[in-house]
């Protein structure tokens, strides 16, 4: 089964839209990775400064490749510069992923 990752980020106050723009730019590249099955940015309307990245990868090798991808190395720090606190990451096993994907 594929592996899902949920990254939680908090923007520097007043820079929420910049964070979303930088993140969506990175995610456009993430979606082109061979082992990526989906990647989306999410925002909590009750907490506009809280932003999430949800991505699903074919397997652990795809996650490892993602971490080494040029866009992760070059654009990741641009996202990081807009964070008001350290990001957190959770990894999940999928239990009901459609095999047709």
Question: What would you note in describing this structure?
Answer:
By secondary structure, the chain is an alpha+beta fold. It has one domain: Alpha-Beta Plaits (2-Layer Sandwich), CATH 3.30.70. Helices cover 35% and strands 34% of the residues. The protein is built from three helices and four strands. It has helices at 16-30, 60-68, 70-80, and strands at 3-10, 36-44, 47-57, 88-93. Strand 2 (36-44) and strand 3 (47-57) form a beta hairpin. Helix 1 runs antiparallel to helix 3. The chain is globular, with a radius of gyration of 14 Å. The model has no long low-confidence stretch (mean pLDDT 94).
- Helix share, percent: 25-40%
Strand content: 25-35%
- Low confidence ranges: none
Shape: globular
Q: Quickly count the helices.
A: 3
User: What's the gyration radius in Å?
Assistant: 14 Å
What composes the largest sheet?
A: 4 strands, antiparallel
Strands side by side in the biggest sheet? 2-3-1-4
Broad structural category: alpha+beta
Helix/strand order, N-terminal first: EHEEHHE
CATH C-level label: Alpha Beta
Quote the CATH topology.
Alpha-Beta Plaits
What's the layout of helices and strands?
Blueprint: E1 3-10, H1 16-30, E2 36-44, E3 47-57, H2 60-68, H3 70-80, E4 88-93
Antiparallel strand pairs: 1-3, 1-4, 2-3
Helix pairs in contact: 1-3
